[in-house]
Amino acid sequence: MAHAATHDHHDDHHGAPKNFFVRWCMSTNHKDIGTLYLVFSLLMFFIGGSFAMVIRAELFKPGLQLVQPYFFNEMTTMHALVMIFGAVMPAFVGLGNWMIPLMVGAPDMALPRMNNLSFWILPFAFALLLSTLFLPGGGPAGGWTMYPPLSLQGSSTAYVVFAVHLMGISSIMGAINIIATILNMRAPGMDLLKMPVFVWSWLITAFLLIAVMPVLAGAVTMLLTDKYFGTNFFNAAGGGDPVLFQHIFWFFGHPEVYIMILPAFGLVSEIIPTFARKPIFGYKAMVFAIASIAFLSFIVWAHHMFAVGLPLGGEIFFMYATMLIAVPTGVKVFNWVSTMWGGSMTFETPMLFAIAFVILFTIGGFSGLMLALAPADFQYHDTYFVVAHFHYVLVTGAIFAIIAATYYWLPKWTGHMYSETWGKIHFWNSVIWVNVLFFPQHFLGLAGMPRRIPDYNVAFANFNMISSIGGFLFGASQLIFLGVLVHAVWFSKKKAADRVWEGAKGLEWTVPSPAPYHTFDVPPVIHDHELAHGHVED
Amino acid sequence: MTSGGIRPGSTKRVVAACALIALAMFGGVAMANPQPGQLNMTRGASTWSPVPYFLNNVALGVCVVIGILVFGAMFIAMFRFRKSRGAVAEKWSHNTTLEIIWTTIPVVILIVLAYLATGGLRTFSDTTGSQMTVKVTGYQWKWRYDYVDYQGKAIDKVGFMSKLDRESDETRQLNSGLDPNAVKVDGYNTYLINVDEPLVVPVGVKIRFVITAGDVIHSWWVPALGWKMDAIPGIVNAAWTNITEPGVYRGQCAELCGQDHGFMPIVVKALPKEEFEKWLADKEAQAKQPAPAAPAAASTAAAPSTAQIAPDAPVAQGHQG
């Protein structure tokens, strides 16, 4: 049994180093590095969230009450950069680090030292990025999309470009590590088509990362040389083309959007079968759908640019390709519902967040379908309708999945049960206030409120006030999450069983809780019936 | 019939409330500009603007129906198949027939939507046969309008800058102490959506807009016309409209363009043809008034209503290159 394999022999490196610096800064252990990623991501979530609070506070009512417009633009830009590159992506890498070796029966990640490097780059990247707020000239204020010529007017270009390069290097190294681990380190018998869906989703995501992060690096480097070295890539006066940047950026940017949602699909595909006590419906279809979405993500980029004046053929191609994504995405949603149908469900906190994910992500998918229709997008584009859309897929999509996964595996990580009562209080507060926050933004966009504006006509006043109230309360609800985490890690008395959830299947539940410092030093013997997808037919 | 006094009143109130909601969701030309509590897109006031409105409603309808089916099934599952009710998990994990059905039906729906949307795109992209051309140039943070031609005749030197009106501008300063609710024109709140000099155009005429920018990217958007088009330095984009109803239509810059991005509104004043022609003739006469050879630049500051001469080709002055 896997259990036995984790204990005996190898006494020479059994526990974690006692020295704090050695353990956390010099770690090559996938679990410790996973923890580092997750803690870093949580910190960034609160920093990015505080920027969002500034935005919602200024938008509470018409008229400027708190900040100057330029600072408001810095807040919208930094909120996006911090949340995307600091909160969501590192959270997925952290979950991957912690869980992929445990799920495929590997002793660690394939490249442990690179793992350390890819994490420790991040604090420096974000120190650079955040420091611009305190420098003369302020932080980036041209939007996270950094469209030139506007983004070149700021004085923080060099800092931002260097920070983005660092984040990109970190992501690429993380992705290489995950691919190497999954392809080389699976325990004998863990065939590719027996892997958990989460592992599949990360494998595909890692290829997306390797494909597009260099593209972003190229785009921002051209910004840098345009600004400081006299090139004219994006300068019309010098024969360049400002729209070229948008093509390059969105060739990165659209796969990037899926980098932030595919692992979430994987997480939800682990959690729902566990609490429905029924295998995932259509395992192969789920994997194939993720792969199709990943492929399509490369040929839809210009749907972010329907209003730049594309030729008719371009508009039509990108509209059709974008609409196609609805098919595999629909398959995933139908399969989650079918997994629940005929199950024996209980509703612990991870399941609640996973169900909320399916419903609210689907609402974000609906508005995505509407946005795909180019003539309608001429109205929706760059309005609060778009803001509502991508917050539904990223907050109630990606972040809800991350929170669900945190509750799901927290007992495995810490060896303690979290407080189910407070978990549910956190859930209900989150799910109510997030809708109060984002649903009215659909109406604002349809009524004609552009995004990224610090002040607005009084016709938009009532929904903005509702949205802001939802925002403050959603933000405050996340302090409950912090409380639940602190309690579970340091104060909870309730010991977690090895198989924390009754319906949980897969290798990660065969190791003790908390998971020992080293697991699977000897590859586990795989019994198909212990795996979630051990008996895949069809 | 003692209760009769109450009932009609309450019915009337319900009808009024329903009418208000219906108006908020499907308001017509009367609501081409943003209204408090507006829930849906405007139908607009041009020949093309119903296209996005119609597509929006169809797509929303499709999404609502699918949403009811999917979420309905989820909620039934959550109530029927809970462990606390003694549900025992079944073992099946696929069903080929079902999977084929729910892959095919969305494809069919998408084909219908794609057909509708493609038609809208084709009509939108066709700027031929226009009877008037207006050049729109975005600057940080104002718009410039130059009248190029009308009914096949070139227009001489009619063009002007259009920027946020002074009342909004004073009110929008940080902690100005002024009330945005007080900024009104004819009882309609125009805070941040009013300008010193609107773009004046005729109704019932196909107008071609050529849109560009002088510094950074902007986006020219009037919801009542049904579209927005980016104004990009070094690139000239084309779009068209044919306004059906006289009126004042308001919009805003829709592409982040710097600190005052939120403060460069657009106002289009659509006049009946004859009134527009009279306005245009007056403008042309005004443009000719100052001595033709004199360097008019100095006089423009003193006489703001005087038409300014169009600047040279829209070249990006962006950054130090």
UniProtKB/TrEMBL annotation, chain A:
Task: Supply the Gene3D superfamilies for this chain.
Answer: Cytochrome c oxidase-like, subunit I domain (1.20.210.10)
Q: Where in the cell is it found?
A: Cell membrane; Membrane
Q: Annotated pathway, please?
A: Energy metabolism; oxidative phosphorylation
Where are its TM segments located?
36-57, 77-96, 117-138, 158-185, 197-224, 244-268, 280-304, 316-337, 349-374, 386-410, 431-449, 469-491
The enzyme's main class, written as a single word, is translocase
EC annotation?
Answer: 7.1.1.9
How does the UniProt record describe the way this protein sits in the membrane?
Answer: Multi-pass membrane protein
Catalytic activity reads:
4 Fe(II)-[cytochrome c] + O2 + 8 H(+)(in) = 4 Fe(III)-[cytochrome c] + 2 H2O + 4 H(+)(out)
Chief subcellular site? membrane
The alphabetized UniProt keywords are: Cell membrane, Copper, Electron transport, Heme, Iron, Membrane, Metal-binding, Respiratory chain, Translocase, Transmembrane, Transmembrane helix, Transport
Q: Where is the Cytochrome oxidase subunit I profile domain?
A: 24-527
- Is Nucleotide-binding given among the entry's keywords? no
Which family is it part of?
A: Belongs to the heme-copper respiratory oxidase family.
Task: Sum up the protein's function in the record's words.
Answer: Cytochrome c oxidase is the component of the respiratory chain that catalyzes the reduction of oxygen to water. Subunits 1-3 form the functional core of the enzyme complex. CO I is the catalytic subunit of the enzyme. Electrons originating in cytochrome c are transferred via the copper A center of subunit 2 and heme A of subunit 1 to the bimetallic center formed by heme A3 and copper B.
Q: What is this protein called?
A: Cytochrome c oxidase subunit 1
Q: Which organism is it from?
A: Dyella halodurans
Gene name linked to the record: ctaD
Automatic annotation (TrEMBL), chain B:
Pfam families reported in the protein's UniProt record: COX2, COX2_TM
Which parts of the sequence belong to the Cytochrome oxidase subunit II copper A binding domain?
129-282
- In terms of superkingdom, the source organism counts as Bacteria
Keyword Nucleotidyltransferase listed: no
Q: Is Transmembrane helix among this UniProt entry's keywords?
A: yes
Cofactor(s) needed for function: Cu cation
Q: How does it sit in the membrane?
A: Multi-pass membrane protein
Keywords annotated in UniProt: Copper, Electron transport, Membrane, Metal-binding, Respiratory chain, Signal, Translocase, Transmembrane, Transmembrane helix, Transport
Q: Where is the composition biased (Low complexity)?
A: 287-313
EC number(s) reported in the record? 7.1.1.9
InterPro entries recorded for this chain?
CcO_II (IPR045187), CcO_II-like_C (IPR002429), Copper_CuA (IPR001505), Cupredoxin (IPR008972), Cyt_c_oxidase_su2 (IPR014222), Cyt_c_oxidase_su2_TM_dom (IPR011759), Cyt_c_oxidase_su2_TM_sf (IPR036257)
Domain Cytochrome oxidase subunit II transmembrane region profile, which positions?
A: 33-128
* Record-annotated membrane-spanning stretches: 56-79, 100-121
Region named Disordered:
283-321
Gene3D superfamilies annotated for this entry?
1.10.287.90, Cupredoxins - blue copper proteins
Q: Where in the cell is it found?
A: Cell membrane; Membrane
**CC cofactor note:** Binds a copper A center.
Signal peptide start and end residues: 1-32
Q: Which reaction does it catalyse?
A: 4 Fe(II)-[cytochrome c] + O2 + 8 H(+)(in) = 4 Fe(III)-[cytochrome c] + 2 H2O + 4 H(+)(out)
| PROSITE patterns documented for this protein | COX2 (PS00078), COX2_CUA (PS50857), COX2_TM (PS50999)
Family affiliation: Belongs to the cytochrome c oxidase subunit 2 family.
Q: What does the function comment of this entry state?
A: Subunits I and II form the functional core of the enzyme complex. Electrons originating in cytochrome c are transferred via heme a and Cu(A) to the binuclear center formed by heme a3 and Cu(B).
Q: Which NCBIfam families match?
A: CoxB (TIGR02866)
Q: What is this protein called?
A: Cytochrome c oxidase subunit 2
Source organism: Dyella halodurans
